């Protein structure tokens, strides 16, 4: 592996013009294609294998004229305090607004609240429902403006009017603030780490190019593959984070090789051969974790995972080809000022020299080495207390995860400054908390001798179920063998009692099937959220087995050790559970919620645990590979087990810290977005990287390795013969003839051919 990547790095440096030209050509091609391609659709939102989806499919089959999207708008009218909407003036204002709503070209039907019994019992609130001829994606701005104008007319008459519904939802996309924050913080971290504008700018430049290629590719494929707009968000989030980190490791190793006196071309080859090997395997773990999302069986999740995996693969390719090509264009610019000054005067920096390793148990000199070295020695002196403290701390943060409640945030999670949230609150106050999440019951009476009698029996039974406020009249299809009605719960859509109610209604099905020869299924947004949460929970263990199993095998091959992969997996479980517990603390229990702009606490997004597990596992293995590969490199070259830990920290701790800070900055930037899903994912990922990088990889890992000693690198002989050998440490390069940097001429400048 190292030898192949060494040759690739030298080739990219030698053919730097061709490599850059190829990247520019690819970027231009996918850019033009993506910008001219049809826009992304809503994507495949189906959820195979759950009852809600089966009920929806039955409705589509038996009610062929029904809208596949259910596009609609709800206009809520609230009378002034002490008045009723049925009062003469207020009623006239509502009827005028309803008449105005019905004039739109895309409007199919407007339900007058006074004719459809849509007035609250106390008369304070009423609502009009607008049904459109087109799916919600096709509702025009003109149609939305017409709703706003009608609402404005009623407001002018003294009523409080709010609007909601799928037709009024607009995909605002990313604001751009997240990307600006992430890139800005990354630039500062890189500048502090490298002390060079060129070294700081190169990872940013190559990462942006890689992200641009992946995003344009997603735009190009969005329509034919039915990718949703959220796919590009996840791709940008991960592509930017790993793109900067992977380039960072290659540039850092290049600077290290130059400090040892190697020529620019030789240093580039060795940087790609060693750090590039770690990049390949780290990227592969991320790709495995993301592609593994397909085992959950949710098409949208599969698409997002595969698209993000493609973005990570492009980031790896950029680190292996574009980065060395750019290094060849500016071989000295990425070096620190002191290194450039040393080259100018014909000296090499002392960074290449490695202090002699102290014997095991010998206390090294207190002032020796960098901060990473001193931290590693601190942990080596107290491995057991450090390990216990780290595990207990993460365990305490993980405790709230035991009370995790899954759901899908709706209008109730939006800011109170939005009309959708105010419409939700007005309906809940006027008609009860369950009004915003009615259950849709689909009755299949095709085999029943008396379909109407069967539907009435099922409707009556559900109406008398504790927790149900009311049941609407049944609506039959043309064939008269299928009916749909709604059951309104007493509790809100996100209340745990509503979940219990759905389970109770479904449990009544066997007895009703026997008595009526008809069956029914429960669907609707509330039931769908409950079913999706159950599906994700049931898929979490198989997903963990597949992803963790494949990653353990991969790490076995990389490190040729039994203990290191197992330790890596267990450390990941600790960090991801702690991160999930922190998400529950903020987004479900409300601690520090206002600090992060969380308007309403409630259940955690159903897909959040699977997202967190998949993405964080891949990123956690990044730091494991980058940090531990340097330890193994030192161990295979003669360092003792304890000194190998110190050597690994000496060479990689500073860069790993910088990489973690960059990822945290990129993910934290997405907390500023208004969308609750993106905000939650950004917070969860930032927290997980913080805990995994600084507590698990930088603290628990060296403590465990110190306690294990040489046993950490033990591998059964029979397993060693079975596993393929991949040279991640660059041992093959030790036998490669080195190309040293030519001595400067009398002017102090390096000959021109040294940088070619």
Spell out the key features of this protein.
24 helices, disordered C terminus, 756 residues, Multidrug efflux transporter AcrB transmembrane fold, alpha+beta, four-stranded antiparallel sheet
In terms of per-residue confidence, which ranges show pLDDT below 50 for 5 or more consecutive residues? Answer: 349-367, 744-756
Provide the helix percentage.
55-70%
CATH C-level class of one domain: Mainly Alpha
Total DSSP helices: 24
What can be said about this structure in brief?
The chain has 756 residues and is α+β, with helices and mostly antiparallel strands. Helix content is 60%, strand content 7%. A hairpin with a 5-residue loop joins β8 (475-476) and β9 (482-489).
Describe the protein.
Helix content is 60%, strand content 7%. It is an alpha+beta fold and 756 residues long. Among the domains are: 1-36 and 195-352, Multidrug efflux transporter AcrB transmembrane fold (Up-down Bundle), CATH 1.20.1640; 372-416 and 537-717, Multidrug efflux transporter AcrB transmembrane domain (Multidrug efflux transporter AcrB transmembrane fold), CATH 1.20.1640. The strands form three sheets. Strands 6, 7, 8, 9 and 10 form a five-stranded antiparallel sheet that branches. The longest helix has 35 residues, at 525-559. The radius of gyration is 31 Å and the shape is elongated. The chain starts with a helix and ends in a 22-residue tail after the last helix.
């Amino acid at each position: 592996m190292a030898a192949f990547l060494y040759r690739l790095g030298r080739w990219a440096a030698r053919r730097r013009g061709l490599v850059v030209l190829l990247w520019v050509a690819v970027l231009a091609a996918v850019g033009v294609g993506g910008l001219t391609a049809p826009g992304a659709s809503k994507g495949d939102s189906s959820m195979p294998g759950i009852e809600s989806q089966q009920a929806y499919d039955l409705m589509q089959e038996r009610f062929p004229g029904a809208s596949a999207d259910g596009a609609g708008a709800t206009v809520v009218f609230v009378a002034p305090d002490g008045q009723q909407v049925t009062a003469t003036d207020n009623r006239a204002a509502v009827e005028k607004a309803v008449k105005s709503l019905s004039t739109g070209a895309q409007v199919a039907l407007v339900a007058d609240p006074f004719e459809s019994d849509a007035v609250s019992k106390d008369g304070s609130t009423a609502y009009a429902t607008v049904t459109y001829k087109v799916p919600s994606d096709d509702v025009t701005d003109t149609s939305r403006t017409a709703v706003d104008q009608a609402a404005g007319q009623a407001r002018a008459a003294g009523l409080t009017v709010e609007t909601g519904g799928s037709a009024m939802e607009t995909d605002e996309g990313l604001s751009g603030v997240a990307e600006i924050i992430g890139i800005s913080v990354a630039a500062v971290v890189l500048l502090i780490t490298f002390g060079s504008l060129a070294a700081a700018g190169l990872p940013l430049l190559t990462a942006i190019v890689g992200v641009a290629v992946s995003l344009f590719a997603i735009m190009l494929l969005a329509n034919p593959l039915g990718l949703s707009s959220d796919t590009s968000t996840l791709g940008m989030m991960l592509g930017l984070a790993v793109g900067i980190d992977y380039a960072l490791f290659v540039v850092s190793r290049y600077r290290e090789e130059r400090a040892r006196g190697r020529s620019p071309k030789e240093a580039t080859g060795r940087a790609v051969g060693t750090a590039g090997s770690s990049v390949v395997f780290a990227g592969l773990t991320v790709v495995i974790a993301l592609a593994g999302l397909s085992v959950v069986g949710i098409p949208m999740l599969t698409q997002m995972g595969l698209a993000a995996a493609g973005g990570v693969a492009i980031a790896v390719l950029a680190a292996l080809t574009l980065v060395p090509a750019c290094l060849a264009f500016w071989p000295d610019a990425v070096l620190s000022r002191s290194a450039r000054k040393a080259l100018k005067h014909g000296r090499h920096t002392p960074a290449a020299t490695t202090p002699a390793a102290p014997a095991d148990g010998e206390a090294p000199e207190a002032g020796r080495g960098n901060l990473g070295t001193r931290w590693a020695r601190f942990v080596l002196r107290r491995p057991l207390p450090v390990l216990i403290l780290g595990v207990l701390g993460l365990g305490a943060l993980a405790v709230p995860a035991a009370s995790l409640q899954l759901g899908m945030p709706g209008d109730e999670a939006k800011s109170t400054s939005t009309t959708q949230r105010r419409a939700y609150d007005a309906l809940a106050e006027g008609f009860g908390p369950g009004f915003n999440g009615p259950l849709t019951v689909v009755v299949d009476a095709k085999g029943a001798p008396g379909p109407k009698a069967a539907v009435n029996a099922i409707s009556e039974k559900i109406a008398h179920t504790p927790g149900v406020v009311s049941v609407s009249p049944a609506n039959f299809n043309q064939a008269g063998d299928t009916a749909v009605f709604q059951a309104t719960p007493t509790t809100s859509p996100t209340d745990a009692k509503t979940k219990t109610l759905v389970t109770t209604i479904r449990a009544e099905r066997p007895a009703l099937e026997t008595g009526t020869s008809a069956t029914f299924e429960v669907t609707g947004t509330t039931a769908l959220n409950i079913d999706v949460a159950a599906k994700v929970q049931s898929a979490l263990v198989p997903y963990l087995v597949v992803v963790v199993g494949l990653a353990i095998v991969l790490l076995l091959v990389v490190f040729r050790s039994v203990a290191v992969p197992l330790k890596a997996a267990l450390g990941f479980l600790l960090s991801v559970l702690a991160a999930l517990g922190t998400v529950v603390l903020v987004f479900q229990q409300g601690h520090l919620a206002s600090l992060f702009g969380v308007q309403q606490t409630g259940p955690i997004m159903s897909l959040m645990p699977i997202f967190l597990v998949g993405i964080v596992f891949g990123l956690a293995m990044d730091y494991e590979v980058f940090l531990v590969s340097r330890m193994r490199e030192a161990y295979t070259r003669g360092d003792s087990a304890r000194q190998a830990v110190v050597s690994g920290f000496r060479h990689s701790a500073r860069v790993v810290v910088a990489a973690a800070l960059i990822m945290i900055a990129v993910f934290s930037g997405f907390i500023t977005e208004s969308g609750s899903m993106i905000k939650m994912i950004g917070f969860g990922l930032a927290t997980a990287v913080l805990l995994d990088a600084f507590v698990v990889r930088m603290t628990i890992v060296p403590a465990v390795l110190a306690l294990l000693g040489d046993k950490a690198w033990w591998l059964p002989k029979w397993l060693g013969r079975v596993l393929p050998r991949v040279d991640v440490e660059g041992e093959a390069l030790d036998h490669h003839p080195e190309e040293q940097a030519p001595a400067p001429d009398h002017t102090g400048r390096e000959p021109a051919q040294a940088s070619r």
